[in-house]
Amino acid sequence: MLEWKKDGWKAAICLAPMLLLMALFTFYPIINTIITSFKVYPDAPSGINDFVGWGFGAYFDPAYNPSMEAWEWGKEIPVLQDKSFWSAVAFTVLLAVISVPLSIIIALLISVALCSIKPLRGIFQTIFFLPYVTNGIAFGMVFASIFSWNGLINGMFNAAINWIGDIPIEGLTDKTVAMWAGAIVIITYTIWNGLAFKILVFVGGIQGIDKQYYQAAQLDGASKWRVFRKITLPLLSPMVLYITITSLIGAFKAYSSIVAIYGDTMGSGSDSQFMTAVGYIYNSFNQVTGASQWQLLPVSSASAVVLFILIMIVTGFQMLYNKKRVHY
Which of 254, 234, 138 is nearest to 194 (CA)? Predict the structure, then answer.
């Protein structure tokens, strides 16, 4: 304790720059967004950017009537009553539920395979790590080209079902794309794009496991599956928990992957059928800045706050669920 008190100022000096940056670019925006979501601006065009009070209208407004053809001037639909927002959240949850477990399982299997081979291990690790250091938008454009109407994947499917008849599969550039087909492309891209970092973490964790455990298991004649299940996986549990939490947070913030494939509309044509929660927030803020209608800003901020709360709830449940299953 005396040593800590003696050298505490040194730690404070070392942490000060990073804490200052976090306070400026992380904590302040979060707090300001929460405050803005409770602000009320006037509805009249002459009252733009004139703050008039506080309220919960951005979250829930009893005066809102879903049967109305148009909402009041200068207002967006309250976020908790907006079906398009919950549709975007539902699609985001679908992506997270499917892509996160699959990506973790695939990354774990690849990591075990990489650590089990010696020849060309460095080359394979470099190949798997390349997506992490490459621009995601560029890869999204490549995926959009591969899955387009005249792309590689579509051509392979057409050839496979040619014996049935000439039944071309809809590509990503068509006017309409089936929901399941577009979701498969997004999930495939998300899994592939996120493998690199997961593999890096898992390979580092496997290489840090004491080899005596594997030697003892080999002497006992344990099978490879039993070694993986009883030694590798339990000792990798801290990394698995870390990857699971960060992957879920990243999945809930999905935006650039869909924009890279489908563009700003986040769907085929003008139909935003693949809109995610973050995409909804971006579109809402763009409407505010584009029209200079500051009275729309509280609803935009409220949607970000709701997403933040959902992420915190999911993260908290994940940590509580794995509290007794992680071995440090």
Answer: 254
> Could you tell me if residue 223 is inside a domain?
yes
Its domain, for residue 254, covers: 87-321
pLDDT, tens digit, for every residue of 179-232?
777 788 888 888 888 888 898 889 888 888 888 888 888 888 888 888 888 888
Which CATH number does the domain housing residue 171 bear?
1.10.3720.10
CA 267, chain centre distance (Å)? 18
Q: What is the pTM of this model?
A: 0.80
Q: Compute the distance between CA of residue 285 and CA of residue 24 in angstroms, rounded to an integer.
A: 21
Q: Say how far apart CA 202 and CA 228 lie, in whole Å.
A: 13
Distance of alpha carbon 298 from alpha carbon 283, whole angstroms:
14
- Answer whether residue 70 is part of any domain: no
- N residues, the chain: 328
Question: Is residue 39 helix, strand or coil?
Answer: strand
Number of domains observed in the structure of the chain: 1
CB count within 10 Å of CB 241 equals 17
Task: Calculate Rg over the CA atoms of the chain.
Answer: 25
For residue 44, being part of any structural domain is answered with no
Q: Is there a domain that residue 5 lies in?
A: no
Give the Cα separation of 295 and 299 in Å (integer): 8
